[in-house]
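User: Design a sequence. Structure:
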C-alpha cells in the first residue's frame, strides 16, 4: 500500500472515533492483542513525544549527513575472489555490512521528506531530497584495504536499504525545478500548484505529484 493511500485510510478510520474515551478504549483493546515479546516496543511508541517540525527534522538530517561525510558514521566491507567453473573464471566480490544502521536511518529520512511533500512544506522537502541524494557513504575495509564509497543507488543495489528510487527521482526532480524557478517563494503550496499548472513542460511532474498534493 502506498503512503498516501495508507494515510488516507488511517484518517478515515480515525474520523470514526468521536470522543477521547472511544480512543482510549480502542488503544486498550489493541494493547490486549499484542504478543508479550512486542509489548515493550508498543509502550515506547505510545510515550508522549514532542512533535517536531519539518525544519527541525531537516536540521537533524543535515547534522547526520555531515557526520557521514566526515567519516564518523560508516559502513564496513570485506572482499574475496569468487571462482566459477575454471580458475580463470573468477570475480572480485565485496560484501557490505551496516553496523551503524545507516540504511534504516536513510529510509526514515526519506519517509520524512515524503511527509514534508504531503504536508506541502516543499522547501524542507526539497532540501531533504537534495542532502540525501548527494550523500556519499564510506565503507571501511575490515582488513585495512582501500575504503569504498556508496551513493543511494549503490545502497539499494547492495540491499542495504529498500527505497523506491523512481519515486524519489520524480519528487526530487520536481522539487528541484520548483526551487530553481521560484527562488524564495518555493515553500508556498499555492505558488507551487500554479507553477506546475502553467508550464506545459512540467505536466509529467504534475501528474506524478498529484498523489502528494
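Assistant: Done.
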Amino acid at each position: 500500500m502506498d503512503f498516501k493511500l495508507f494515510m488516507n485510510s488511517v484518517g478515515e478510520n480515525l474520523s470514526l472515533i468521536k470522543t477521547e474515551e472511544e480512543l482510549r478504549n480502542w488503544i486498550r483493546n489493541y494493547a490486549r492483542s499484542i504478543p508479550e515479546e512486542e509489548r515493550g516496543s508498543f509502550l515506547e511508541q505510545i510515550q508522549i513525544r514532542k512533535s517536531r517540525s519539518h525544519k527541525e527534522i531537516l536540521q537533524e538530517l543535515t547534522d547526520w549527513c555531515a557526520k557521514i561525510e566526515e567519516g564518523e558514521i560508516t559502513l564496513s566491507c570485506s572482499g574475496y575472489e569468487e571462482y566459477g567453473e575454471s580458475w580463470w573464471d573468477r570475480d572480485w566480490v565485496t560484501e557490505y555490512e551496516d553496523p551503524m544502521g545507516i540504511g534504516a536511518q536513510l529510509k526514515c529520512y526519506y519517509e520524512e521528506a515524503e511527509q514534508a511533500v504531503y504536508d506541502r512544506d516543499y522547501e524542507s522537502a526539497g532540501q531533504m531530497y537534495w542532502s540525501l541524494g548527494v550523500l556519499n557513504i564510506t565503507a571501511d575495509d575490515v582488513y585495512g584495504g582501500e575504503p569504498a564509497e556508496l551513493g543511494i543507488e549503490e545502497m539499494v543495489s547492495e540491499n542495504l536499504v529498500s527505497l523506491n528510487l523512481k519515486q524519489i527521482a520524480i519528487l526530487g526532480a520536481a522539487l528541484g525545478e520548483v526551487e530553481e524557478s521560484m527562488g524564495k517563494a518555493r515553500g508556498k503550496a499555492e505558488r507551487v500548484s500554479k507553477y506546475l499548472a502553467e508550464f506545459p513542460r512540467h505536466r509529467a511532474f504534475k501528474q506524478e505529484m498529484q498523489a502528494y498534493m
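The longest strand covers residues 75-83. The beta strands are 75-83, 90-97, 137-141, 148-150.
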